[in-house]
């Protein structure tokens, strides 16, 4: 690093690195220079190293920083976000449930504003109203049962709440807040109430001070030709490794893959009657788009049986979406072409296809596959 940086860039990196380190230590509640070696500190070191690499690349690319410390703080927070999202799948599942509720219920709404990062949520008639005060949001994050007791669910089990229970709970939350708030903050408040792991950590902005910078995403310049070539090399190696994995790993990984860094993605397909939402997960199409594999090769690797196609047609409501009847499509390749346009799938659907006892087992198998692939890429000399 020192050999390629100018003196001015070295000074800039030191300033930005110190800010990123400070944010990460605060988020993980550790000191990186401590002699201790706890699991939390090791996780913080992993996040810090990832953030440092991003800062080095940004400075080396010649990006002009209007607010260098703010940029570094955002990179650090985003790195924490990426880490916690992987290791706290329950929070992401809860966000999906709330997001679908807001989109389906006419008296509730999601909207965006130029001042805030991410979706804002609240009663539909509150669109345009000022965001709830930060001290009220923080207080509710600490003690979510502070809302009107009649609004609390009878049982604090996410999967048992129906639309009526969600409606009552959210009325209580927004009565307390007196204003809309970021969807991520609402998810964390509900997550603390329901005991969802990682909910406090995922409340990224609750303790953000003015000197942590604005909540904006760093610019994403187009990759240089050598970077694009390296990405394609990584995808080739990834596909070769995927082909060697047991089928019980392949299905969870390809049907609802983790987001590829720097790639676009689509939200997994929802249950019948629900609309598609914003991207949360990766796409298996990254392999076809980069000329790594054909749809036919992916179909052969996944290898759905006739019984599994029957499950998919039913769970995805293919006929209801205007697709053909299953019995009218006899060729397996044509059947897969229909399903291809409906990918990625929800973990609950994948569980039914694989005859597993629930989405959590799908999540666990995907994590095993992800760990295997990361190790394989590292062993081959390609950073994961």
Describe it for me?
This protein is mostly helical and about 375 residues long. Helix content is about 55%, strand content about 5%. The protein contains 16 helices and three strands. It has helices at about 5-30, 40-60, 70-85, 90-105, 135-140, 165-175, 185-195, 200, 225-240, 245-255, 285-290, 295-300, 305-315, 330-340, 345-355, 360-380; strands at about 110, 120-125, 180. Strands 1-2-3 form a three-stranded antiparallel beta sheet. Helix 4 (about 90-105) crosses helix 7 (about 185-195), helix 9 packs across helix 16 (about 360-380) and helix 15 (about 345-355) crosses helix 16 (about 360-380). It is globular. Residues about 205-220, about 260-265 and about 270-280 have low confidence and may be disordered.
